[in-house]
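[job 4417] fold queue: 2 targets
>>> target A
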Amino acid sequence: MSYTETLSTEVKGAYDTKGTPPMSLSWIDISLLTLLICLAAVLMAHSLMYLNRRDAQEVRQNRQATCRRHEWVKHESAGLICHLCGKIPG
């Protein structure tokens, strides 16, 4: 048996009787995988936005908690606001 005959029988062994490779993906499989990857990306983006918002809220609360003496200034859209920490009275 020559090298080319051995190679051709090894290649034929990798395919089933129809001539297609085993475990081939259909268009439905590919579209579902794409959908799942997109869903994971959207969930990851929203979780990062949520964590950033929570972190900013925690920083703001810590800054307001450490402000000893508030310096109130008049702000046109919010009324009174502390110049040092950004706290609104109340």
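>>> target B
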Amino acid sequence: MAACCSGGGGLIVALALCFVAASPVEAVCVEVDSVDRVVVNNTIKLTCISCRKRQEQDAFVDVTWTFQPDGENTTAVDILVMKRNGDDVEFTNLQFGSSRMQFVYSEDYQEVSLNINDTKLEDKGTYRCHIRRVPVMPSVHKPPEFFVTKTIHLEVVPEPFMDITAKVSEVMMYFMIVASTVLLIFTLITCYMKVKQADKDKHSKVTDLLVIAPVNKENCATEQAEEELKSSS
């Protein structure tokens, strides 16, 4: 009994050691392209993700979002500035402001995206997400800096847009429905005409038979009368 207990305790200790030794599972970072088209008055998320390499250490992150309207002689203006890992976040443009924009970021600041609510036609333009990352290196007087820029050309459309492939598919679907309906109607009409013609031919044959029958009967009567005359003479 004691041996059994000892064996069970060893198994529990081994499992506990394995659990402690196992490294925690880290979230996987994947860089994806941002949506670049939105219907006016809707909300859009401008995605900005910059994945750190596995060997990189913790870092201080600064983020600046800029916006440049479409057209000639336009300049880029800051619309959001974040310093030192979120210690200071400022919306710097009255066109957007904190009421229309939300800063969407992950805990490690690998994602620093931007939500724009109630989009306007004048929101169309080029958005850039500038990321400055400085690794935390206490023993280094001037650690290296890493810069990443993501560019998004946003299009704001007044009506819901539809992909050209979807439009072609929709047109082809309606065409096939109309063509099938026309073919069905043509087939029904053709069948009806054939049945009607066959019925007409049948009636014609019956009429001909009715006309021929009395004639044959008269011929038979005439022949019988002639034979009787010959026999009497």
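[job 4417] complete. Note on B: Helices lie at 2-21, 97-100, 164-232.
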